[in-house]
Amino acid sequence: MQRRALITGVTGQDGSYLAELLVSKGYAVHGLRRRSSTFGTERIEHLIRGNDPCVELHYGDLSDASGLARLIRQIRPHEVYNLAAQSHVRVSFDQPAYTADVTAVGTLRILEALRDVQDDTSEQIRFYQASSSEMYGKVVETPQKETTPFYPRSPYGVAKVYGHWITVNYRESYDLHASCGILFNHESPRRGETFVTRKITRAAARIKLGMQEKLHLGNLDAKRDWGFAGDYVEAMWLMLQQPQADDYVVATNELHTVREFCELTFSRLGLDYLDFVEVDPRYFRPAEVDLLLGDATKARTTLDWTPRVSFQELVEMMVDGDLELARRERNAGGDTISQHRMVA
Ligand code: NAP
Ligand code: GDD
Questions:
Q1: Has this prediction a pTM greater than 0.90?
Q2: Are strands 256-257 and 223-224 parallel, antiparallel or unpaired?
Q3: Mean pLDDT over residues 123-130, rounded?
Q4: Closest ligand 2 atom to Cα of 197
Q5: Does 250 sit in the ligand 2 pocket, CB within 6 Å?
Q6: If you take atom 16 of ligand 2, which residue's CA is the nearest one?
Q7: Is it the case that residue 333 has pLDDT exceeding 90?
Q8: CATH code at 30?
Q9: Residue 96: inside a domain, yes or no?
């Protein structure tokens, strides 16, 4: 029988890679999409268009409990991947209550829907929760692993801690097959344009082509463990194939600064970042996460998962993608960026 999967956040970076992976494995893939005044489906156009679309989209929102319950009853998925979230850390300081409602309580709404439908189905529905290294925040040990205590430093991090623990609680209380992937930062050419890596590669490509003069950034000394999103969605799927649900850190165990990301990006384009990057305090956060470094030993030994794309390859992939995009924009004679001065 063909397995059915439901992905919330299917229009996002990870949702698009996960949908591709599940389609390639023969799943019937369903995705939750929010209503918006624009399409918002750029990352998955190739999966939803044509006579025989690979992914079926349904309108819904993590704030709408009854809609989520109805959808889960209708689809009866074998696997549910909860990737939807207000996922921007800086924005969560501006919209803390909204972030809590969607990123924290939204997870509970899905778990409640699963708990209800689970009672009248013979097969156990498997659930994946997108937990985050941001939960470690002001880290109490390095590298961080599954047993490291959380110390979140943003409304987003706090909301993710709730989503994490409520998932563990439903696993223990109602025998749900519910797993949390504690994923460290992962990027790609499909990364949202206000996250720092994509902001850098996008701006550097435009600077190279004379379409932009400067790049304004915040804390250049922040250190992160950056991997490739395409590798990380494989770990999500592997977690749901295990006989027992559990929680796993997914990371590369390599540390780099924002400054290093700038250096590599600009040098790929034959430029020196010092000539173009300016620090703008408006991009500093009320509370910063200085360092995140993950120990993915458990994922490696239990799931047989390892990252394939190196840091250097990731930077090159993103720079090359954004150079191509900037060329297309230039040739079209337009400037499609409207968010230059957004503080994020
Ligand atoms: P993303 O690109 O920002 O995608 C977020 C997705 O959530 C989008 O599809 C978005 O829809 C959807 N969404 C937002 N609010 C919603 C709502 N109220 N109802 C329904 N859908 C909603 O994020 P990502 O990088 O793919 O990350 C996927 C998940 O992993 C997120 O939960 C994120 O917090 C978590 N995570 C990410 C990383 C990382 O480094 N990327 C690391 C750890 C954890 P629109 O397209 O309509 O905006
Ligand atoms: N966004 C942004 N914009 N970040 C900047 C900038 C800037 O102009 N300048 C410096 N930074 C620094 C931030 O202060 C932070 O320390 C670091 O770059 C990374 O910022 P982001 O790329 O926005 O990612 P994040 O680490 O805050 O959050 C991402 O990773 C989490 C996992 O740890 C998001 O994808 C979260 O959803 C995810 O959970």
A1: yes
A2: antiparallel
A3: 94
A4: 22
A5: no
A6: 222
A7: no
A8: 3.40.50.720
A9: yes
